[in-house]
Amino acid sequence: MKIPDTLYSMIIERSGERMNRALDAEKEQLFSKLSGVVVEIGPGAGANLRYYPRDIAYVGVEPVEALARLCEQEASRCRFASSNILRTSVGNLESHLRPHDLQEDYADFVVCTFVLCSVQSPMNVLLSVIGALRPGGQFLFIEHVVAPRGNLPWFGQKAIKPLCRFCGRCDPTRDSESSIRLAGFKKVESRKVALRRFPLAPIIIGAAVK
């Protein structure tokens, strides 16, 4: 059981603004390196776009129609060199992008923020990211992850998991950092950030190179 897409879209839009306020400096630093073709998986309402350089070719892959429309509006305001929002599942990035004349190994960067907690198979998404990146391309990520087992935030994550799954389609107990490291990237660098406003959501920020 899950909430309707319209309500889900409102939650995602508002939570995106909250995370921008909490992670403003981190996002500015991480996304300043973007260039060329940039694919974003699950951009939601486009909360990250304000941080992106304007000379990029932007492709968003957003499965929720209401969010895709909001992301299109934000991309239009940003006036990138080009922008395209694909309404499609994020389950297999490669196979869903090919019908749109986008080739394997074409992306310079793939961005993913607070998405791996909500997809059905994080590893399938990560393998698709690797397939979409050109050799030497980078996967930039910001994800909340499971807290160390047995401590207070871990118990809190377990307690709120049903509510998170219902309202945000999110599993706060996922070990997304391990998934990224096991996916097959050539190099992975990440660091953990603790936000006072979100004590039950340890966050990792980093980059992985194909």
Q: Can you name the CATH architecture?
A: 3-Layer(aba) Sandwich
Strand content: 15-25%
DSSP helix fraction? 25-40%
Report the radius of gyration as a whole number of Å: 16 Å
Alpha-carbon distance between the two ends: 37 Å
CATH third-tier fold name: Rossmann fold
Mean pLDDT: 82
Shape: globular
List the helices and strands in order.
HHEEHEHEHEHHEE
Account of the 3D structure:
The chain has 210 residues and is an alpha/beta fold. The protein has one domain (5-209): Rossmann fold. 38% of the residues lie in helices and 23% in strands. The chain is globular and about 45 Å long.
Structural topology:
Blueprint lengths: L4 H18 L1 H8 L5 E5 L15 E5 L3 H14 L3 E5 L6 H5 L9 E7 L8 H11 E12 L7 H16 L8 H7 L4 E7 L9 E7 L1
Parallel strand pairs: 1-2, 1-4, 2-3, 4-5
Antiparallel strand pairs: 5-7, 6-7
Quick summary:
Helix content is 38%, strand content 23%.
Distinctive features:
210 residues, alpha/beta, Rossmann fold, seven-stranded mixed beta sheet, 38% helix
